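Human: If only I could read backbone structure tokens as easily as an amino acid sequence. Underneath my words sits a plain record pairing an amino acid chain with its backbone structure tokens. Take your time, and here it is.
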Amino acid sequence: LRQLWPELLQCLKDHLAPGGVVFLSDPFRIIANEFSEWIQNQKNWCYSESSIALPDDKDHPIRVMKLTII
């Protein structure tokens, strides 16, 4: 999956205008932790994340990653 990350970013660049935003979600998997670290080192991207507790499973929140193209 890691080898697809650059392709994902290229796809997003092709479809987002400057200032465009995409949201990705994940249940805090290890590979998503690695993606989080990786994306923060990429040029032209602003990264932030939130943790969202689900009403039916408060013990297992979902990470929501916000990527903004600069």
